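Deviation from plan, reported transparently: iron/sulfur cluster complex.
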Amino acid sequence: MTGNGFIASAREAAARLNTAPPAGYREVEARYPFLASEYYLSLIDRSGGSPENDPIWRQCMPAAEELEDEDGLPDPLAESAQMPVPRLIRRYPDRAVLLVTGSCATRCRFCFRKRFWADGGELADISAAELAAASAYLHRTPAVSEVLISGGDPLMLPSNDLRSILDELSSIETIAVLRLGTRVPVTRPDLITPETVAMLAAYPGLWLMTHFNHPRELTPVSAALCGEFVQAGIPVLNQTVLLKGVNDDAATLARLFRQLIAIKVKPHYLFHVDPVRGVRHFATGIAKGLEVLAAFRSNLSSLAVPTFAIDLPEGGGKVSLQPEYRRNGKYPSAVDGHLIDYPG
Ligand code: SF4
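Because the crystal trials were delayed, the predicted structure below was used instead.
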């Protein structure tokens, strides 16, 4: 897909940025194709010379390390094994995930569903029959009260198709909450019209989950769009992935999280990278996430601190992690670090 604001070749993207494509890009693209919006590429900072260490570049441009990871699994979270019907993942008794499309506005190189777009494939948009089968399952499974609409990116669907999905899910009496996960506000905010915002606002139980990873992604355009969602009464939460060489330092993340709460977007999760094939070079190690979290203790408002979590292999679910603060039965002061006894 080239045109309409998208570029589908790393060589062309690099040429637009007046720079050379990354080493080995042809082989990497043959396995994991490139796609980025012109908007997202425009966020790459070229002022410092080679952009290879730029956090936006690293998130969207192919890297040779993607092919060096043969131990990672395509689906370590066992999503395929947890589908009672096609497109619907049920890991927890009360929640399910509906995969509605494989389309995205930019292919993130760290994507945990990279298997959907490896080797030139792409998960198709959900069909009417698949939606009906998922709906029938949810009708006969009243324990599920919340559905995460995911993909791919649901906001890449034509509005009418998305409305049909939301109408279908809302018609199920036992579904109280819909969560819509999207990175379009980050990678292609201009695709979201006031009509789309109004359409989403009409569903009372709908929450929006954005995916900002770096403060440079939170441009005035993206921030204004988040403001429109909030103004329309849609709660907006953000998920961030901790990515080596992109955002793996406390100062960068604190800047992002402060900017998000200032526009009433709540940082919800900070995820460690899943052990997905072709992605693991972005993994920082869990210790890094705990170190970042510990640094937040005295330097970041609790409003801005997300839950740091890992998603267990074999579909074991999320586990939230906290640094161990206690030493010799005492806790360090957030002011000067001296150890304090907590009675009781
Ligand atoms: S937008 Fe989400 S689903 Fe699409 S490539 Fe990025 S991380 Fe993967």
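The CA atoms of residues 311 and 318 lie 4 Å apart. We consider this an acceptable substitute for the interim report.
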